Amino acid sequence: MEAKILLVEDDVDLGNLIRQCFEINDFQVDVVADGREAYELMDKNPGHYNLLLIEASLPGMDGFELAEKIKDMGCDTCFVLFTQCGSKGDRIRGLKIGATDCISKPIDVDELILRSYNIIRRLSTRFLFDRNVIQCGDVRLNSVSMMLYVGSRVEMRVSASESVLLNFLLSNENRLVTRREILGHFQKNSHPFSGRSMDVFIFRLRKRLEASRFVRIDSVYGRGFILSVRDR
To answer: Locate the OmpR/PhoB-type domain: which residues (predicted)?
Structure first.
């Protein structure tokens, strides 16, 4: 799976250099030069990126404010801050607000690529490349541990039937899933299920997803359900 990185850097030449070097190493990189633009992009695409690379001294909304605002929206994507050479205060400030790493300028791109790769590889044991984990928006489900994560602050264990149902809905995001399809999926997975219990589990899942800013389960009368992911 190609890791997705958002680079927030107002130095156009440096941004292009980093993007090109990362892409040569099989990363997918989007580059923006403005903190507010980066915030809007993250607000519309929660959970889309595996890692954020942020220049601390951005004009307007600086990198520290951007990182804090992204965290406040419930997004727990790891981020690395670029700080000015020798600025111990910036490094400490960055680590205090939750930066996974702080790298001083001038940037050694080869080192940055290795650090980014190691961060993403460590995360892979938790969520990103785990075949047992599915994510839509700010909602993640581990179908083996049956742990549901909503945003960065809410986690809970769900029942086996809830896990199977939510996994199926997440796998079909923004698509109408009929009641017949759901029943067929449960039969295929050898889970006892009925039309009446389906409504009960849908109700429970809606309650569990109340903390999500981006995901909800909509009913289509007489047909089925749509797991809607906003602005994906």
So the answer is: 131-229
What is the rounded average pLDDT for all residues in the chain? 86
Q: pTM of the full predicted structure? A: 0.58
The domain covering 4-124 belongs, at the CATH homologous superfamily level, to Response regulator (3.40.50.2300)
Q: Are strands 139-142 and 133-136 parallel, antiparallel or unpaired?
A: antiparallel
| Residue of 204, 161, 205 whose CA lies nearest to 183 | 161
DSSP string, 149-186: EETTTEEEE--HHHHHHHHHHHHTTTSEEEHHHHHHHH
Is residue 196 within 8 Å of residue 186, measured between CB atoms?
no
Per residue in 39-53, is it b (16+ CB within 10 Å) or e — as a string? beebbebbbbbbbbb
Coil, helix or strand for 22? helix
Are the CB atoms for 83 and 103 separated by under 8 Å? yes
